[in-house]
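Page 47, continued from p. 46.
Same chain as before, 40 aa.
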Amino acid sequence: MIKDLKSVVARSQATLFEDMLGAVALLVILVGGLSLPALV
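Result:
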């Protein structure tokens, strides 16, 4: 099973990076949206 996980990660390394960037972008939008009422 560990061998399978390693092969999946090796094959989809670029996709994982893009997914992490998307998750960070969503978190930035969430934090920005939640702090927006404090600025108004």
